[in-house]
Design goal:
Elements: E1 5-8, E2 13-16, E3 25-29, H1 32-36, H2 38-56
Antiparallel strand pairs: 1-2, 1-3
Length: about 55
């Protein structure tokens, strides 16, 4: 998996290849840019799910 990128949730840095413990990583992603946006993407998904849950209630 050296050709993949990971976002480290502890350091907030992108890693090329999995270098850290998996409990600190989000990924894998195919590009450095995609990995750098990991937290924002997760935040948007959570907002969408919460809005969907509220609409179903």
């Amino acid at each position: 998996m050296a050709d993949k990128y990971w976002f480290n949730t502890e350091t907030h840095e992108v890693e090329e290849g999995r270098q850290s413990d998996w409990t600190k990583l989000m990924g894998p992603y195919t590009t450095r840019e995609e990995a750098a946006q990991a937290l924002e993407k997760a935040r948007r998904r959570n907002q969408d799910w919460e809005a969907q849950d509220e609409a179903e209630s």
